[in-house]
Amino acid sequence: MSARVEIRNLTCSFAGRAAIRDISLALAPGTTTTLVGASGSGKTTLLRCLAGLLTADAGQVLFDGRDVTSQPAEARGVGLVFQSYALFPHLSVEQNLGFGLDVRAELAEPLGLTALLARKPSQISGGERQRVALGRALAYRPVLLLLDEPLAALDPNLADSVREVLLEAIEIERTTVLLVTHDRADALRMGQRVALLRSGSLEQTGTPREVYRTPRTEYAAHFFGPGLPWDGIATRTGSAVMVDTPFGAVALRQDILGPVRLLIRPEALSLANEAATPAVVRRVSYEGNRCRIAFETGGLELQMDAPPGREFARGDRIHVSVDADLLVVLPSSTTHHESHVGLEPLASAPVVPASRVPA
Amino acid sequence: MGDRTARALAAVLLVLLVVVVVAPLVVVVIGSVIDTSVLGLTSESWQQDASAWSWFSYVLELYGEHLARSAWLAIVVVAGAFLIGFPAAYGLARRSDGWSAAVRVLLDAPLAIPGLTVGIGLLLAYPWGRASGATLAAGHLLYALPFFVRAATNALSAAGLAELEEAAAAAGASATQRFQRIVLPLARPGLLAGALMAFTISWGEFNVSFLLATPTTQTFPAALYLTYTTNSFPVAAAATTLFLAAATPALLLLQQIAASETARFGEAA
Predict the structure, then answer these.
(1) Residue of A76, A129, A69, A67 whose CA lies nearest to A101
(2) Percentage of chain A surpassing pLDDT 70?
(3) Of A199, A194, A169, nearest to A183 (Cα)?
(4) Residue A308 · residue A236 · CB < 8 Å
(5) Min Cα–Cα distance to chain A from B235, Å
(6) What is the pLDDT of residues A69-117, one digit of tens each?
(7) How confident is the model at residue A332 (pLDDT cuts 50, 70, 90)?
(8) DSSP letter at A332?
(9) Residue pLDDT, tens place only, A191-219
(10) How far apart, in whole angstroms, are the C-alpha atoms of residue B7 and residue B159?
(11) CB–CB of B171 and A101 under 8 A?
(12) Could you report the predicted ipTM of this complex, rounded to two decimals?
């Protein structure tokens, strides 16, 4: 059982200030929407407001057209997984799972909890606690499952395995899900739709591909991945729309003319032959499954992923070309400089001397 | 400091603790059941023909009413602490703002004020309650309440009450179900510990009792004082032993609660 959830012009306060303002969002039945944003953007407040744990100042929440805005939490039929799990410490795993009014013991098996039913929450690991919290939230077939940063407290390896369990359980249950995360990668890979919150307001919603490839604002563009903003002039040359970039003139798919702002993401750049734009390697960041290099060309610093099997060192001379199809065209309305939240410098991964970078 | 030195130091401190704290009590308890001439108290010859246990029957005959009154007062104080302290602890565990900080300070304030000052204050504020013992009970409650509230608040706060209640609400539990299935079980160790502390505090309270009690509301600790000032040593020792006999099980129970609650919540993985 899953509900179509509609949030209409919702405003909700937390600690005396409006933490979310005029939010309107629709969640299709049986789909997973990820709610992503920086710390303090209002993600958890929206989640708690949907759960009925906070009272809305204005606006409506509708489940299948039924207004639940003023209903208390216990009457909403919402499953909620807390970031801290909030397992009842005095109850066993089995009792925690059965705390909902309609006990479903069969959930223990797919969640791998059968052997742990008699234990107390303090006697199981973090990943197991997360699964118990998920099982408890699903136990009474919620019409809407709310997950508050479900992987934030887990180490990366454990998060990987719990993520799989989570996605599998969501797929089996086919319930409507709103998953809060601050991790943009999780936001893109775990939801069919993504909603980006910024300072209490919705910045953009769309499919993961839409928000990444066609961001509506520069903030959204930078939030979902690093890149260099580039201001150019789009002109028509024959039937093509051309724009100058640090890597020469490229043809845009979009039919726009005049000033245009592009975001050059790392994946749009690749090593090329000597006819391409020359550049100098400035930093090399080896991250195991990929190697990202920062290079300089024409006084600009950009990033790209190095091809596997090649070793680079600071000062290496390379040639770089750009794939016009992978350039992000930012809306002209945001061509002014905003704060580049999410613009990821190479420093996010340890920089290692090029001599230590394996081929 | 090496392990051996640390162990030796710990042993010395333990011996000191036994000598300073336990030894006087042991002497008094022994003094209540043996011939006091063994302790060099030859002046206690007026009942040499009596058995060692006769001091107890003498004390019970003389101060039995005081004992019963103290027990009854302690029960009233526990009940009062529960009625006032449990809601207060629940509120304090759920919020941490200026108001809750002010309530905590207010609750702890009597602990920093001499008993005589508190007693005089109560006497002036509630003179009508002195004869019935209500003012005395209020005085005991003032000292027992901070310990009760602290124990109950700690039990609820440690578990993260607010979020657990929210989790229960999200799981469909009504306010009554949340109280029965979450609040009460989580508060139970704190309530038990708080109740025992309230009992022992009331049982042993002397300052306020001495000032506020009337001849008809005098408590056992006040009587105990009289035994040392007006009776012989064996009588005073027997009275002290009776006093300890009631307080010790309560203190042992406190330890037992801590151990059983550890088992109830499970040892950490």
Answers:
(1) A76
(2) 90
(3) A194
(4) no
(5) 48
(6) 999 999 998 999 998 899 999 998 988 888 754 455 667 777 888 888 8
(7) low
(8) G
(9) 999 999 999 999 999 999 999 999 999 89
(10) 35
(11) yes
(12) 0.78
Same domain, A175 and A240: no
Provide CB contacts within 8 A for B131, sequence distance 6+. B214, B216, B217
Say yes or no: A89 and A43 in one domain.
Answer: yes
Q: Which residue has tokens 């003032």? A: B142
A268 and A243 within one domain: yes
pLDDT greater than 90 at residue A148: yes
User: Rounded CA gap, B217 and B70, in Å?
Assistant: 9
Q: Domain check: are A21 and A140 in the same one?
A: yes
Segment holding A58, helix H or strand E: strand A56-63
Range of the domain at A63: 5-213
Whole-angstrom Cα distance, residue A352 to residue A102?
Answer: 55
Hey, are the CB atoms on A121 and B267 less than 8 Å from each other?
Answer: no
pTM of the model: 0.79
A201 and A61 in a single domain? The answer is yes
- Could you give the CA distance from residue B133 to residue B217 in angstroms, rounded to a whole number? 6
What value does the mean pLDDT of chain A take? 85
Per-residue DSSP letter, A337: P
Report the residue of chain B nearest A85, measured CA to CA.
B167
pLDDT (tens digit per residue) in B79-137: 999 999 999 999 999 888 888 889 889 888 888 888 888 888 988 988 888 888 899 99
A192 in the same domain as A88: yes
Which residues have C-beta within 8 Å of that of residue B49, sequence separation ≥ 6? Answer: none
Helix axis angle, A156-173 to A126-138, nearest 10° = 20
Q: Please identify, among A191, A213, A235, the residue that sits at the C-terminal boundary of a domain.
A: A213
Amino acid identity of residue B153, one-letter, is T
Residue in B164, B266, B267 closest to A86 by CB? B164
Which of A74, A84, A145 is most worth mutating to test chain B (most B CB atoms within 10 A of its CB)?
A74
**Residue B267 CB-density burial (10 A; 0-12 exposed, 13-18 middle, 19+ buried):** exposed
Examine the pLDDT at B262 and tell me if it is beyond 70: no
- Please check the confidence at residue A292 and state whether its pLDDT lies above 70: yes
CB distance A85 to B180 below 8 Å = no
In this model, does residue B212 exceed pLDDT 90? no
CATH number of the domain within which A96 lies: 3.40.50.300
Fold of B71-261: MetI-like fold (1.10.3720)
Query: CB-based contacts of B237: which residues, under 8 Å, 6+ apart?
Result: B28, B29, B31, B32, B55
